[in-house]
Amino acid sequence: MSFLKQRVKLLPFEMRDSKTRKAVFREAGKTYTKWENELTDRPGAISLLMEMAFNAGMAHSSEASNFGNTDAVPTVARMHDIDVPSLSRDILADFRRYQVGLRADGTPPKLEDYALVVERGPGLPGRAGRDRWYERGDKSDHPRSTKAIGPLLKLGLFEKTVFAFPDGTETDGVIITEWGAELLLTGSTPKPEHRQAGTSKTHATFLALREHRPLPRKEGMITVWDLDSKVAAFVLDHRVNGVGRPERLEGGACIEDIAYFLEILEYSSAHGSIKNWRLNRPNPYLVGSPLFDWLLNELFEAGILLSEDENQILISEWGYELIRTGETSTPERRVGGRSSTHREYQTVLGRHAR
User: Are 145 and 133 in contact (CB under 8 A)?
Assistant: First the structure.
């Protein structure tokens, strides 16, 4: 059951309200279901998940008691990925994975790349048609259902629009909003009742995407938009789910959260072993994303990773700064120890080191 513990992490702040708890427990249940056939003690695994939930709830109550009572705990004004239903959250994850950073031809994406169009399903007598939603301009991907689109609209992360095509035809669709872009790029955004147009952390980027202008960055600095899309996806994955979100890591980020170790996997279908690199301490939000050689080369070239020895790879000082702040110095301007997060990076390196 150790791998189940690695893949499920229930944290005190995620117990703050019934809706968030339900979403977190649902994800834990999905993980259990995925690995159910591999478990030798299923009742024990269920007991383990219940104990984890109990401990997280107790820890949350203890934190709340520091304010005198639960009602006195300050309201959390921001929403995170976990506050978005699972089907809808998958759409954001796909956009992060494929639509951020430079394309193969070196061009950055446009706001229209974060949109979906609807294909109306033929209705049967007495029954409504089943609509299918596709990423704009691409029907090769699996379609999304209206059930996945609805929460994105309700939460104000996407809005309805109409797309016109060169042949004069039009189709209904949805496109990402200022708040959806912020959630996409940082993993959090204000809840609807706290939003004021133009105040998101990524507003300048959102405008540049919408107006098809070069994406903003300071002189001598780079952002994820200057990186290859695969490298940008690695950075965003860590920024949204990993070391960029230290409050989601028990005791704060430590070296085990930024260290990858060589792992050999035996695959009969591959006629032998496959080498890959996995986080030293599996982060439950990043586990299942091993690094293979084709991606390592890109990450080394961009200076996001550095080689500690032949069996260990670390996120570099500059990769850490890019993950935490969204920007870092261009390679020719980098001087060791001069990043804005250097002191924090050193603390991470020194914490829980093995």
Answer: yes
- With H, G, I as helix, E, B as strand and everything else as coil, classify residue 220: coil
How far apart, in whole angstroms, are the C-alpha atoms of residue 14 and residue 59? 11
Give me the phi and psi of 274, to 5 degrees please.
-125, 130
> Order of strands, edge to edge, in the sheet holding 259-267?
272-279, 259-267, 312-315, 305-309
Q: In what order do the strands lie in the sheet with 170-176?
A: 132-135, 115-119, 170-176, 158-164
Neighbouring-strand partners of residue 134: 117
What confidence tens digit (pLDDT) does each residue in 303-313 have? 999 998 889 99
Q: Which two tokens stand for residue 138?
A: 């691409």
Nearest C-alpha neighbor of 52 from the set 212, 284, 217: 284
Question: pTM for this one?
Answer: 0.77
Q: Which residues pair with 132 in a beta bridge?
A: 119
Kindly state the percentage of the chain with pLDDT values over 90. Answer: 38
What is the per-residue pLDDT across 278-316, written as a single tens digit (0 to 9) for each? Answer: 888 766 667 667 888 888 999 999 999 999 888 999 999
